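Hey, can you fold this?
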Amino acid sequence: MMKIAVLMGGISRERRISLISGENVLKALKKLGHNVTKVDVTEDFPSRLESLRDFDLIFNVLHGVFGEDGKIQAMLDWIGVRYTGSGVLASSICFNKIATYRVVSPDVKYPDFVPIKEPTDKSPFGFPCVIKPVSEGSSIGVHICDTEKDLMKYSALELNNYNELILQRYVPGRELTVSILEQNEEPTALPILELKPKRRFYDYTAKYTPNMTQFIVPAPLTSEEEEQVVESSLKAFKLCHCHGFARVDGILSNGRFHMLEINTIPGLTDLSDMPASALAAGMSFEQLIECIVSSAVS
């Protein structure tokens, strides 16, 4: 039994999802027999930081800004406590899509992109194209643009919320997600999950609304396709120096896997991808959580 603090909530636009993930983790850790404390992270968190020294482990379930971007990891490193998931370097790389692509290139394929800091109606990749924040999660701020008018509208809209966006080539294909767990210090891919949303793509609504997305796990792939998807995902995990657990999202198009992003603190709600992939591997939610804990203390 360990004394574990579960960090949840946070100050990002993913706060609501983090609270749901956190409550699930809290219940699982209690079932596993740990002494667990809930910590709702709000703007006054820095003044409460020192109190975390008393815990054996911090289970970080903060999604988005100040949870997944390296900032909270740096603070926990400062006070010398162990925590789940990736450290400062991997977190800061993976939360920034441009940094991620630069680190994994040329070993892992991803859709072509250009950064933009001003509203535009011009796409070097034609239409449709995709506009998205450089650093954000849960598909917040992601838009598929079919026309120049769409692109101008959404680039102007999102540049009110973010300093920089990515304009990316639209790659049609099958949406796949690969959850990765470190077991005995070796990253292992769980069964690949295919997403079939009832919306145009796996956006925020499709992610967190019941019955809006069909999960197919394991995804029906040829052995060659499966090998390529797993190899690319594990390469990305290792190149970005991830630790403990993560999820790689991408598109399989014409037999080629195009990585979109790496999530270093994937959702752990009842509708999330990683628990579904773990279940397909024969792991209960409690076993998944215990595996994440073990990777942090081994």
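Oh, and this one too while you're at it.
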Amino acid sequence: MDINNKLIEQWEPKINRMLQTTSIRGMDREDIAQELRIAILKAAKGFDPSRKVSFHTYLHTTMINTIRTLIRTRKGFYYG
């Protein structure tokens, strides 16, 4: 298992929690989950610890912004 898989596995519970309160028109749960997995990998790549914010906070913001972007581009719904 490589680092990317370990990272996604570590944050999978957070993805599942977000999926409980998220619905986006035209996307099923697995589509949204996959977008959030991609967001995790992008967050890991773009994280800068010198900015004095925790990775969890940075990741949470990245995931929320991913959901908002999906909603905006699909004119969907968010229940949260």
